[in-house]
Design brief:
alpha/beta; Rossmann fold; seven-stranded parallel β-sheet; globular; binds NADP nicotinamide-adenine-dinucleotide phosphate
């Protein structure tokens, strides 16, 4: 009988991890999660994930998490220490002899500090001597949830994206792709840029919300400085908020004005459209739900 696959997922409580972990468990994989907040991890623990508490910024806490796993799904935050966090995990993996890293990376304009660090992490993984696969999603559709309040109250989505078109992706398709790579074969040494099915502008985003929510939603472009102030006001750390503004500058110039078939190739199903996303999460953007 073949040995059961054992996988460590970092960032398990976040956007992708919280979908990926249940999917891996359902597929019969032994899943260990590395978390820093036990209350947030409880739903995943209840589903059967083994929990190791620690901090990606603290190398000593990572070693017990990587022991005896076959693969690591390496997801870090996008803050200033992401390079160090990834280095800590890679060093622990090398020390414990973990053979394979699937990196949750990113596809975005290199003028952003976030992408610069992401690219360095990719190089670090490629030269680590370990087996690897890179998943490179672009801008998440779910990011528009940051504008849920103004969409619901005023019918306006404010963003600093100008008329840039992006092949934005639904996080559910990233998790499906990650599941396919982790449980499948033949992905060693490959990079997959992950996009949705269409490269769309924020005007398209607004018109889709208008249709789906059955009310007028307008897109209003804002200067980067205003976006920065709004994000820091919402509690986004300064370094990350500046990185997001840099990302928007690059995306505004159509960096991601293209799509790939990789979600379909990896999962067998088409990538979800923005219309599908808006319909499935309509409640999040509807004033009725927010004021209840
Ligand atoms: N947002 C996008 O459009 C986008 C697109 C492509 C790629 N990416 C990349 O995807 C990655 C994840 O970004 P995201 O926005 O989706 O975030 P996320 O996965 O929702 O959140 C980050 C995760 O990392 C965990 N974490 C953060 N610091 C940690 C630490 N010191 N020790 C242990 N765990 C820690 C968080 O735990 P807690 O729950 O405890 O906070 C959370 O589970 C980033 O590298 C980002 O650059 C993002």
């Amino acid at each position: 009988m073949s040995k059961k696959l054992k996988v460590l997922v970092t960032g398990a409580t976040g956007n992708t991890g919280s979908l990926l972990v249940p999917a891996l468990l359902k597929a019969g994989v032994d899943v260990r999660i590395f978390i820093r907040d036990e209350a947030k991890a409880k739903p995943l623990k209840d589903l059967g994930a083994e929990v190791v508490s620690g901090d990606l910024d603290e190398p000593g806490t990572i070693l017990p998490a990587v022991k005896n796993v076959d693969k690591i799904y390496l997801l870090t935050w996008n803050g200033e220490t992401q390079l160090k966090q990834a280095e800590n995990v890679i060093n622990a993996a090398k020390y414990e002899g973990v053979p394979y890293i699937v990196r949750h990376s990113m596809w975005g304009p290199e003028n952003s500090r976030i992408i610069k660090q992401g690219d360095k992490i990719e190089e670090m993984i490629k030269s680590s001597g370990l087996q690897w696969t890179l998943l490179k999603p672009t801008f998440y559709m779910q990011n528009t949830m940051m504008a849920a309040q103004t969409i619901s109250s005023d019918g306006v989505i404010y963003w600093d994206m100008k008329d840039g078109r992006l092949g934005m992706i639904d996080v559910r398709d990233i998790a499906d792709s990650a599941l396919a790579v982790i449980t499948g074969e033949g992905h060693e040494g490959k990079s997959y840029i992950l996009t949705g099915p269409g490269a769309i502008s924020f005007n398209d985003v607004a018109s889709t919300f208008s249709r789906v929510l059955d009310k007028e939603v307008k897109y209003v472009n804002v200067p980067g400085e205003a976006a920065l102030q709004s994000m820091t006001g919402m509690g986004v750390p300064q370094w990350i908020a500046e990185g997001y503004v840099e990302l928007s500058e690059g995306f505004s110039k159509n960096f991601a004005n293209s799509t790939t078939e990789n979600v379909k190739i990896l999962t067998g199903h088409s990538a979800r459209s923005f219309e599908q996303f808006a319909k499935d999460f309509a409640q999040v953007f509807s004033s009725k739900e927010i004021t209840v």
